[in-house]
Design goal:
The chain is mainly α and 276 residues long. The protein has twelve helices and no strands. The protein is flat and about 65 Å long. The two termini are 48 Å apart.
């Protein structure tokens, strides 16, 4: 039996179309996001070159890229990047080490919650930026004042989200576990902690953004090095390209941190209940 020529030609086209659809569905987020970003950059470049606005105020993607190329060949830039990176890692790491255990403890203990809630609520309500002058008086304008600002910015959202995760534990599961004489440690490890994981990662992502904000604010306010200090100096001298490149660094850092946390969160997917 022979296959008609039209069907032979249609089969490869159909397979190619099916492969293209599968590729799009697998990378739909990247395709849509990348296309949107490309269109935005092209529109920005065209608007900057149109002459309607002075490039001093808006710069352009090509000028920002050129400024970044020149900066990466400057040793001072890498020193600033190292300083800002150390401030972020130390402050954010300390916030994670304190916020998660303390959030679990407050969520599990009613008396501890009564004891610490006034301080947590106060720090959550008061912008941490207002404490920066005091922190600089206490710790100076070196790295540790910025680490303290980063810590204060990140620890509260991590703590509050972790505490909320403990409070959101399914009471019916806990009752069933108690009916089978499960110990408090067993209830915590098998019910409370797995249910808290999504809340913890939400706090970590939100805290990462607050930590980066702390780095920027601390270095803009009083510092002798760092990417925030570089942005402040560039702004004072009308180097718009450098300002945009510094902002791009913080944006890229935030996206990378969130992507890493998303990847880490996937490792805990088996702990989550199936809601489908």
């Amino acid at each position: 039996m022979t296959i008609p020529l039209e069907l032979e030609r249609a089969a490869p086209d159909e397979r190619a179309r099916s492969a293209a659809v599968e590729f799009y569905l697998a990378y739909e987020r990247i395709v849509i996001g990348g296309t949107t970003l490309l269109v935005f950059l092209l529109a920005w470049e065209a608007f900057a070159r149109s002459g309607l606005v002075d490039p001093l105020f808006i710069s352009s993607p090509t000028r920002v890229a050129q400024a970044g190329w020149e900066l990466v060949h400057d040793s001072d830039f890498w020193r600033d990047l190292t300083v800002s990176g150390n401030e972020f890692l130390l402050g954010y790491g300390a916030a994670v080490a304190v916020g998660i255990p303390l959030g679990l403890a407050i969520g599990l203990s009613r008396r501890l919650q009564y004891m610490l809630s006034p301080f947590v609520d106060t720090l959550n309500a008061v912008p941490r930026v207002t404490l920066l002058p005091l922190i600089i008086i206490w710790l100076g304008i070196g790295i540790w004042s910025k680490v303290a600002v980063v810590f204060l910015g990140a620890v509260i959202p991590i703590l509050i989200n972790t505490q909320s995760g403990v409070k959101a534990s399914e009471a019916r599961f806990i009752r069933v576990a108690r009916s089978f004489s499960a110990s408090k440690l067993k209830i915590f490890s098998s019910i409370v902690l797995p249910g808290t994981v999504p809340f913890v990662f939400t706090g970590l992502k939100y805290g990462a953004g607050r930590a980066l904000l702390g780095v920027v604010v601390g270095e803009l306010y009083a510092s002798t090095a760092g990417i925030g200090h570089m942005i402040a100096q560039a702004g004072n001298t009308f180097q718009t390209d450098v300002v945009f490149f510094g902002v791009l660094i913080f944006m890229a850092t935030g996206l990378v941190v969130v992507a890493l946390l998303d990847r880490l969160e996937q490792q805990f997917e088996k702990w989550r209940p199936d809601v489908r």
